Amino acid sequence: MRPFAYERPDRIADAVAILAEAGDRARLLAGGTDLIIRLRDGTVRPDVVVDVKRIADLDAGIRESDGRLVIGGRAVMTDIAAHPVVRRVLTGLAEAASVVGSAQIRNRATLAGNIGNASPAADTVPALLVHDATVVVQGVDGQRRIPIDEVFVRSGVTTIRHDELITAIELPLPDDPSGSAHQRRTRRRGHDLASVTVACVIGRDGVTRLSYGSVGPRPLLRSDERGVLADRGRPDDERRAVLDALFTDAAPSASSMRASPEYRLAMLRVLGWRAVETALARRGEAAA
Amino acid sequence: MTPARVAVAATVNGRARAFEVEAHHTLLESLRDDLGLTGTKECCLVGECGACTVLVDGRSVDSCLMLAVEADGATIETVEGLAGRAGLSAVQAAFLDTGAAQCGFCIPGQLMSAVALLADTPHPSRAEIEEGLAGNLCRCAGYEQIFEAVERAADAVAPARARTAEPRVDVAAIPDAKVAPQ
Hints:
The structure holds two protein chains of two kinds.
Chain A: E1 5-7, H1 12-22, E2 26-29, H2 35-41, E3 48-51, E4 62-65, E5 68-72, H3 77-82, H4 84-89, H5 91-98, H6 103-106, H7 111-117, H8 125-130, E6 134-139, E7 142-147, E8 152-154, E9 157-158, E10 165-172, E11 179-186, E12 194-202, E13 208-213, E14 220-224, H9 236-246, H10 261-287
Parallel strand pairs in A: 1-3, 2-3
Antiparallel strand pairs in A: 4-5, 5-10, 6-7, 6-10, 8-9, 11-12, 12-13, 13-14
Chain B: E1 5-12, E2 15-22, H1 27-34, E3 53-56, E4 59-62, E5 75-77, H2 90-98, H3 107-120, H4 126-132, H5 143-157
Parallel strand pairs in B: 1-5
Antiparallel strand pairs in B: 1-2, 3-4, 3-5
């Protein structure tokens, strides 16, 4: 691995000051499960690595505040997947966090890192999109609150500036019983990157929010406001047509080695249907 | 750039250790090259095979994906720390009993993942064992013996309760879950 300077600030303000000064020569180190691979293979060559794990005002916890769940910028997948409120109310996110990498990866990988890397295949991002997350970032000019759908540009590119640090991810806790689910397709069971990811939330009002990743440069969020998908009284053909219409912007790359575009599009429809049906069943249980 | 050397103080297998590392060295490199703990194996270096698994503050991690400087202040356990004065630990003994080690290269990592799993879930189901050890590959494909060893170790350490039927993370409820059919 190419040598670099190592900084371990203990305040957010110090961290963003280092980032502002070093510009694109600095890289943030949170869980390191992506960064250290890239440091080793030379695809990123920073002069300075800024470790965020000793920042006292950067939370590693998960807490409820004013009807929202606040996930700290240092919180790891293991803790998110195990958190009782996440599992009960934001089930799609709990499922997504529970399939990231392996146990070893989930013990280190942070939700903030999964967002910041902006991989089209990021397991948690479709779940964050359907659960209407807000990404809180802090830079030298102060704090910004960015709706998650406005964060992603394309693979590896976000609207988060170089001097900004993700300090928290906030998710509204719905008053009404809703149901959510996460689905993904991998080449093999166990530890693998996703070829297709889908997440879905269905509210009591019948609105379905559905998001999908690994089938284009960034995960997309779509919705069925008319309640057709959520209405089991309607014929399956009609519901499936509505579902298919949500996938018209899926544009999987032909150059990816994990799966062909045709396979991804076919699996997208299968997993989308499963996600909707699972979310509906869970909404029923939540209301009961 | 001149490599920056950073002081690290950590508890390794119950012993307080102070050492200097280069900032761009991984915990895996430091354990093997600075501390001489070569039980932890280097293999894929991308966090897929789990041969380098150690426990950091009680949690399993791939030591190839962690800088040595990040271990400052941490409690590290490696395979060398498993056996006590009385002999092998229950998990190690179970691995021997079932013939889980073939070539043996993956076994230190498998053992550390098994220890982490059993600390968290004393009575794991087969699905929980498979999920808990999903980050540890065995090229000899001795998975059956490895899973059986974890079950035996669980029974040996805490035989009073039956194993739980369902995985802790409820992936079994998902049609496409990565849990094996029983």
